[in-house]
Amino acid sequence: MSPVRRTLWWGALLGAAACGDPRASREQLIERGHLRREIAGLHTLAPLMRSGGITDSTIMLVSLSDSLFRSLLDATLPVSVPIAAGITVRLDRATVAFRGNVARIDVVGQATRSAFPRVSAGVHLRGALDSLVVDTGQVMRARLSLDDVDLDTTGSVATTWRVLRAIVRQGLPEITAAFPTVAVPVRLDRAVRLPAFGPDGPVAVPAAQSDVRVTTSRVVAFRDRLWVMLKVSRTPFRSVPAESAATRNVFQQPTAFNRAARP
Amino acid sequence: MTRWRSLAGVVTLLALGIGITAWRFRLLSPRPLAAQVAADIAMLTIERDALRARLWFSSETRGPFAGHPQGDVLIGVPTSFVRSIINDAATGWFNEIDLHIVNVVIHTQDSVFATIGPFGEHKVGWYTLAMHLDDIRGRIMPGLPQLTFGGDAIKIALPVMAEGKGSATLHFTWTSKGVARPVCGNLKAVRTVSGRLRPDTAVVRGLVRLSAKEGALEADPHFPNLAIKMRIVPSPASVAAIDTVIHSPGGLCGVFVRRAHAFTQVIDIVQNGFIVHIPQRFFRPLRLPVAVETSVPVQGNALRLAVRPSGLVINPSMIWLGAAVTAAPRDTVHDHRRATARARAKRG
C-alpha cells in the first residue's frame, strides 16, 4: 500500500471515528424527561385510582379542563417584566398540559433590549403549577412558577443569544413573581345559610348559619384536567341575627402542587 | 523528498484526525447517544401508554373521579356531605320555629236534652262555648330526620314536637228553653284560663329536590300542605274554672247540664286544639357552599364567563355538577375595563 493510500485510509478511519454516533438533541432529552416525569406521576396516582371512591365525607372535588385553564391563563397575558441589563421579557401566550400528575405550563413571548445594542429574541419559558390557594375573597387561585427558558436562535449571533439566555435565565425568579395568578372560576362560600322567615302569620324562624372552612388537600393533574381535592369542615347550624349573618374570614396556607414532579 | 512529503501528509492527517476527534468528543459532556435516547423514548412511551390506559380504565369505573358528567368545570360533593347538610338543614327548618298565636277563636255549641217525667225527652236548652286564644306562644322542636335518596330528590320524614303555653278567655253561655226556661233562666260567664301545648310528636313529610341553579348546587325543599296540630292541656286551675262555669246553672238545670256531659265536651274541644298551617314559602332553597362563578378577577378587572350547566349526576358516593365554561374574548376584558372606567368617571 502506497504511503498516500495508507494516509487516506487512516484519514477515513479517523473521520469515521469522529463523526459516527450522533448525540441526542435537546428536544429528545426534554421529551425523555417529560415521559419519565409522567410515568412517575402516573405511578403516584395508581393507589388513588385503586380506592373505591371518596368515602371521606369531608372531601369535595373541583376539576378544571386544561382548555379552560389555558383561556384563563391567556386572559392574564400579555405581561411585560423588566429584568436585568435593560431587557424586558413580554409573555404573550401560554399552553398547559395536565397529564400524569404533572401540570405543565409553557409560555412563549419575546425578550427585547431596546437600548443599544438592541437585541430581540423569541423566548419559550417552561414551568408548572406551583400551588393553589383560597384567598380571602373566596377565590381559588393557582400560582405558577417558571423554571426553564429557551431562546429562538434564528437569525441571532450565537454569543448574543447565549448572553441573552443567561440574563433571562437569571431573571426567572422576577418573571415568576410578576406572572399573574390564575383565578379558578369556582366560589367557595364560608357559610351555609338558612334565611330568617316571618313573622308570617303565627310562624317566625330566626336565620341560621353553619360556618364552612375549606382547605385544599391535594391537587392531581390527570386526563387533561386539574383535580383539586378540598377538605371541607363545618360547624353545626346556629341561630344568627338576620342582618348580621356574616361569615368569619378563614385564611389558609397554600397547598403546594407536586413540586417534585415539576418539569 | 517524496518520503518527506508522505510523512508530512501523514502527520497533517493525524493532527487533523486528532483535532476532529477532540472537537467531536468535546460535546461528549453529559449528552447520551441519540439512538440510545430514541430507544429510551420508545420504551418509556410504551410504558406510559400502558399505565395511562390502566389508570384511565380505573378512573372510569372506580376511584374518586368515576361517573362524573362532561364539562369544563366539575364540582363533586360527597353524598354523605350533602346528607349531613340536608339533615342539619331539615332540622334547622323546624328548629325553634316560634309560634305566636293571637285572637284565634275555637267555638262550639250543643243542645241539652232531658227526660222530664211524663213529658218525655225535651230540649231544655243549649250552651255555647267560645274560647279566645289570647296569646299562645310555642316553639316547634325537631327530632332526628330520616333521609332517603332517590333520583334527584331526597325524601324527608322528620318528627317534630311543639311546646309552649298561653292564655285564653272562655265565654260560656247557657240558654234555657221550654219548660226549663222559667226554672233555670239564662247564664253568661267569662273566665280567663291558661294552659300549655301538649308535647305530641307529629311526623312531617316532604322532599328536597337537588338541581343546578346559577352554577350552584341547590337543595329546594317541598313540604306541600304542611299542617301541624297543636293540642292544649288546660291547667288544673283552668279546668276548675271551666267546671265552675258549666255547673253554674243550679238546681234542676245543673242536673241537665251534667247529664249532657257538657264539661267533657268542652274539655275535649279545648284539648283538640287547633291546626297551624306552615306555608311552602317558609322553606327557602339552600345552596351548597361551592359554585361555578360567572366572572373571575383578572389583573384588577373582571373576566366574564359564559357558564352553561352540562349535567347533574347523583350517584351513591358523589353528587356531580358539570358546567361548560367559556371565557369571553380578550376584547371583552378591555371593554369591561373601559366600561368600568366609564362607570367610575360617571360616579365622579
The quaternary structure here is heterodimer
What's the total helix number of chain A? 5
Tally of DSSP β-strands of chain A: 14
Q: Strand-residue fraction of chain A? A: 35-45%
The gyration radius over C-alpha positions of chain A equals: 27 Å
Overall average residue pLDDT of chain B = 76
Q: Sketch the topology of chain A as an H/E string, one letter per element.
A: HHEHEEEEEHHEEEEEEEE
Q: Work out the largest interface and the residue count of each chain.
A: A-B, 95 and 98 residues
Overview of the molecule:
The complex is a heterodimer of chains A (263) and B (348). Chain A is an alpha+beta fold. Helices cover 27% and strands 43% of the residues of chain A. Chain A has helices at residues 3-19, 26-50, 66-75, 158-170, 172-178; strands at residues 59-65, 79-82, 87-99, 102-113, 119-134, 139-151, 182-188, 191-194, 197-200, 203-205, 207-222, 225-234, 238-240, 255-256. Mean pLDDT of chain A is 74; it is low at 16-20 and 243-263. By secondary structure, chain B is of the alpha+beta class. Chain B contains 8 helices and 16 strands. Chain B has helices at residues 2-26, 34-61, 79-93, 180-184, 236-246, 251-259, 262-272, 330-347, and strands spanning 73-78, 97-101, 104-115, 121-142, 146-150, 153-176, 187-197, 201-213, 216-222, 226-230, 232-234, 274-278, 286-292, 295-298, 301-314, 318-327. In chain B, strand 3 (104-115) and strand 4 (121-142) form a beta hairpin. Chain B is rod-shaped and about 175 Å long. The mean pLDDT of chain B is 76. Chains A and B meet through helix 1, helix 2, strand 1, helix 3 and strand 7 of A and helix 1, helix 2, strand 1, helix 3 and strand 2 of B. Strand 1 of chain A pairs antiparallel with strand 1 of chain B.
